[in-house]
Design brief:
Elements: E1 11-15, H1 20-30, E2 34-39, H2 59-64, E3 69-72, H3 78-90, E4 93-96, H4 102-106, H5 110-116, E5 121-126, H6 141-147, E6 155-156, E7 159-160, H7 167-190, E8 194-199, H8 200-207, H9 212-218, E9 237-241, E10 250-254, H10 263-270, H11 287-292, H12 294-305, H13 310-319, E11 324-326, H14 330-335, H15 337-341, E12 345-350, E13 354-359, H16 382-389, H17 394-402
Parallel strand pairs: 1-2, 1-4, 2-3, 4-5, 5-8
Antiparallel strand pairs: 6-7, 9-10, 10-11, 12-13
The chain binds coenzyme A (COA).
The site of coenzyme A has 24 residues, from helix 1, strand 2, helix 4 and strand 5.
Length: 406
């Protein structure tokens, strides 16, 4: 197996911040690209800072910025802009997720960057599409999940509830990475650079695509059903409490809504209630009738679950061909060695925080092994990038440092 990532040889100028953009460039870095993260001198990217531990990189920063090189540059100074323009010429891709108009204000418009490097892939991630009526609006993750359908479909009938993880941030970042790689492939074939734009709202609309089935069927938006089945009233489909009834001691059980499925009958065998099988009990005959009488079916499931943990329940049910998923939190995942063995959880060593475990890259490729590195120290690659890559002398570098340009 080769250890070289498929993107090795490509260089990315990374002008991203927080989660959405940084996840995009982290993905490119895991796949082997050389990612130069541009940060403000002294302070660094704002995501480095946390109120809990000022002066130490936030865990969030480490999670989003693995395998990158950090360089400092005050993009608002003329000397800093000149450095960025030089870098633009030796990079294949530039990625940014600043507020609307910020790149243009810096003088780094697409047209300017294309002038500097006609084959540049110029990738921008914004909250909203840059041609639409919301183009000037700022956005964090919940703004995108609210304006991109997802929250309208999530929560209780009378209360929309946002997702607890940043789906819009990380999802849009990953989709941007995918589009950048496609643009690089096109560049290989046709010799052209291009601009790639993605809006978090638009990504969320596309991610919410399953909502169009009920919308088209009923002519109105789907209802919210908490942990139930959104497409149809069927049972069992819920998140049930398990032994020992702690905060996250739950298992989700869902039996297929499709006719002919044996999953409910299998469940009846497992929980010792053959009297509730489809052919025996008229109330339990179909997924819909079970929903109408869900007090019976849910009651039987809850009685059985009193004796099992979520892990035991998941194992027993899945082995009997009943779809069931334990509610696993960060602690469960971090402490279960299987995730580390297959590289989903990886251990990093941070100079200030020591060793800890965080999520890695999900896909597996037969010819590639992702080698994980901790997020970079602020300006850790200044010498390499400004010295070796751009050819600035030690005197020039220390003068720029003195002036806080780098
Ligand atoms: C997320 C967001 C709302 C944050 O807004 P914000 O805190 O006001 O930050 P902005 O990105 O608007 O501004 C960053 C500023 O830092 C400046 N900056 C960034 N890097 C710099 C550097 N290396 N040197 C000097 N200045 C720098 C930018 O030029 C910009 O200045 P300006 O406001 O004068 O144009 C906004 O960036 C945004 O809408 N981004 C796009 C959507 C997105 O990615 N959201 C999710 C983030 S997880």
């Amino acid at each position: 197996m080769s250890c070289k990532g498929p993107l090795s040889g490509y260089r990315v100028l990374d002008m991203t911040q927080f989660e959405s953009g940084t996840v995009c460039t982290e993905t490119l870095a895991w796949l082997g690209a050389e990612v130069l993260k541009v940060e403000r001198p002294v302070k660094g990217e704002l995501g480095r800072y946390s109120q809990a531990n000022p002066g130490v990189d936030s865990y969030g920063f480490v999670v989003m910025n693995m395998n990158k090189k950090s360089i400092t540059c005050d993009a608002k100074s003329p000397e800093g802009l000149a450095l960025l323009e030089k870098l633009m010429k030796v990079c294949d891709v530039v990625v940014e997720n600043m507020g609307p108009g910020s790149m243009d204000k810096l003088g780094l418009t697409y047209d300017r960057c294309k002038e500097l490097n006609p084959k540049i892939i110029y990738a921008s991630l914004k909250g909203f599409d840059q041609t639409g009526p919301y183009k000037d609006y700022p956005a964090f993750d919940p703004i995108a999940t609210h304006t991109g359908v997802m929250v309208s479909a999530t929560g209780l009938p009378e209360q929309p509830i946002k997702c607890g993880v940043s789906v819009a941030d990380s999802g849009t970042g990953m989709t941007l990475a995918m589009s950048i790689i496609a643009a690089l492939l096109q560049r290989e074939r046709e010799g052209i650079g291009q601009r790639v734009d993605v809006a978090m709202q638009d990504f969320m609309i596309c991610l919410s695509r399953s909502q169009w089935e009920p919308f088209l069927n009923k002519g109105k938006p789907n209802r919210r059903v908490a942990n139930g089945m959104p497409l149809e009233d069927v049972a069992p489909s819920d998140t049930y409490p398990c032994k020992p009834f702690g905060l996250n001691d739950y298992v989700h059980i869902y039996c297929s809504r499709h006719p002919g499925s044996k999953q409910w009958d299998n469940l009846c065998d497992v929980i010792g209630r053959p009297d509730l099988k489809q052919d025996v009990c008229p109330e339990m005959a179909t997924p819909t009738s079970r929903f109408v009488h869900r007090d019976i079916c849910d009651g039987a499931i809850k009685d059985w679950l009193k004796n099992y943990t979520k892990f035991e329940a998941m194992d027993i049910l899945c082995k009997a061909d009943i779809p069931a998923g334990a509610l696993l939190d960060c602690e469960d995942i971090t402490n279960d060695p299987q995730y580390q063995e297959r590289g989903i959880i990886v251990e990093v060593e941070h100079p200030q925080r020591g060793k800890f475990k965080i999520p890695g890259f999900a896909p597996k490729m037969s010819a590639v092994k992702v080698e994980y590195e901790c997020s970079p120290e602020l300006g850790g690659s200044n010498e390499e990038v400004y010295g070796k890559l751009l050819g600035l002398s030690a005197e020039e570098r220390s003068a720029l440092k003195e002036k806080k340009v780098i």
